[in-house]
Amino acid sequence: MGRPSLYTPELIEAIAERLSKGEPMAAICRDEGMPAYRTVKDWMDTSPDVSALIARAREEGFDAIAAGTLEIADDGRNDYMEQSDDEGGIAFKLNGEHIQRSKLRIETRLKLLAKWDPKRYGDRMTLAGDADNPVMGMTEAQVDARLAVLQAKLLADKPDA
After folding, report:
1. pLDDT in tens, 64-93
2. Which helix (H) or strand (E) holds 119?
3. Which residue, among 83, 109, 110, 107, has the nearest Cα to 95 in the 3D structure?
4. 97: confidence class by pLDDT, cuts 50, 70, 90
5. CA separation for the pair 127, 47 (Å, rounded)
6. In degrees rounded to 5, what are phi and psi of residue 155?
7. What pTM, to 2 d.p., does this model score?
8. 77 phi and psi, to 5 degrees?
9. Cα separations (Å) of 17 from 57, 71, 112?
10. How far, in Å, CA of 11 to CA of 157, rounded?
């Protein structure tokens, strides 16, 4: 089979261009004249420039996929079907199957985006503890200050002996 194995700047640019439009790497690599997926991964592992180019193209592609979800949501062309009524006239009936399919297309894209780029497309979660046990990283100075406060409380609560 005619799968190229040698890196060329033109080939990596072509891959990056397609990635930036939201096309998955696996689909690109299945095409005639494209390297195997593993080959591209090897190029990324050995070249920081290739890795950075691919990462940037993927980010742009994620944004393209997100924009595509808006297009799907805004496209109401097939939400209704023409149907003859009992009197020979035309009525419009809600096309639930089309609406459900559009919903599935949007949800699938959003779930993939949340997995692929959780910082930008994942659900934001805030973890919080109570005032006495906050959930956060503390510097050494903050830990020392907190220990001093706790030691002072402990001494204040001790009865005089």
Report:
1. 999 999 999 999 898 888 888 778 788 888
2. helix 118-121
3. 83
4. very high
5. 37
6. -65, -35
7. 0.67
8. -55, -40
9. 7, 21, 20
10. 72
